[in-house]
Design a protein that fits this description.
alpha/beta; Rossmann fold; 15 helices
């Protein structure tokens, strides 16, 4: 072998050895990274948690808050949050709601927030609707007329509850009114974020991807569905991420995201419930929403759900209207709830 060939062979071997050292170094670093402890609760989030309670649903603990407000009113409102966040989405309008309603109730769906996050588990909209019914039964409100206020993922849960009520299913709620907000209730006008599509359809790769999601990746994704002038603060991003990470909730996101496929499969059931009900309906809509874009979404809603009233908020408001414009959101909701 020539001297030049020998040198090349040595250099090649040294190159392979260098990459081997890098790989051996990365393995423990990656292992540590994938097991980062969940963030500490902020004082605000800790107060939210300690002011709530849990009840048991099929062996899992479900977190909820239940406060009494307006004296002389018997009205009850039940709040249904969106994906991937939690009941804390309602914290900016909680006190205004308490001033109008005798009772304000919110829960963290199974797999969200401070509720249990079992895995493996087949999460479904049907199960989440049963969670809501079980909570209402637990609170002794089965015969109470309830006002449902929902957002995003919660919109579809609300439509399943509406279907059960209108079809007189066992254990159904007594729904007095329903107000939706920025939910992807029509598959044909719903545009999931890229990461959502990847997580829900990547099979065995999805559990790996859920472990790779970190605060920076999460906050960038959430920020994309807020308006440019209504962005969360750093502390608010951390509160949302902490809710996701609590009990390793990031590891069930791929399972929960099957709700997008469920919306398509059960479109006739849920959109049919919306178009046929006699329950008072309202839609509060942030028009800058990239997930349910304007004007396609709202035009289709007004075409199909002609009995519903609609409030379109300011043009800078996006997918989280109750957080981005709590005053405008509350004004729209109170105008609706006081109209019948």
């Amino acid at each position: 072998m020539s001297r030049r060939s020998s040198a090349a062979a040595v250099e090649c071997g040294m190159g392979r050895e260098w990459w081997l050292h890098v790989a051996l170094l990365c393995i423990p670093l990656l292992a540590v990274y994938l097991h980062i402890p969940q963030p500490q609760l902020s004082p605000a989030l800790n107060t939210w948690r300690t002011s709530g309670r849990v009840f048991s649903f099929r062996g899992n603990n479900i977190f909820y808050r239940d406060t009494f407000g307006a004296v002389g009113s018997s009205d009850v409102v039940v709040l249904l949050h969106g994906f991937p966040t939690s009941s804390y989405d309602w914290h900016k309008i909680w006190e205004p709601l308490n001033q109008r309603f005798n009772r304000v109730i919110a829960l963290d769906f199974l797999g969200f927030g401070f509720s249990d996050k079992p895995r493996p588990h087949r999460y479904s909209i049907f199960e989440q609707a049963s969670v809501v019914e079980a909570l209402i039964s637990h609170l002794g409100l089965t015969d109470q007329k309830l006002n449902l206020l929902s957002h995003d993922y919660g919109d579809t849960v609300a439509l399943e509850l509406l279907y059960r009520t209108d079809h007189n299913r066992t254990g159904h709620l007594a729904i007095n009114s329903l107000c939706l907000s920025n939910g992807g209730i029509f598959p044909e006008t719903h545009y999931p974020r890229f990461v959502q599509k990847i997580l829900k359809d990547s099979g065995f790769i999805s559990p790996i991807l859920t472990r790779l999601i970190n605060f920076q990746f999460f906050s960038r994704g959430i920020g994309d569905v807020f308006g440019p002038y209504t962005q969360p603060t750093e502390a608010e991003y951390w509160d949302m991420w902490t809710g996701v990470r609590f009990n390793d909730g990031n590891l069930v996101m791929d399972s929960i995201l099957q709700y997008i496929n469920q919306r398509l499969k059960h479109r006739e059931r849920w959109v049919g419930a919306l178009t046929s009900t006699l329950t008072p309906l309202h839609m509060i809509y942030g028009p800058l929403d990239p997930v349910n874009p304007h004007p396609q979404f709202i035009h289709l809603y007004q075409k199909l759900v002609q009995r519903s009233t609609v409030s379109v908020l300011d043009e800078h408001v996006s997918h989280y209207p109750q957080l981005e414009d709590p005053t405008g959101f509350m004004n729209a909701y109170l105008n609706f709830i006081n109209s019948f």
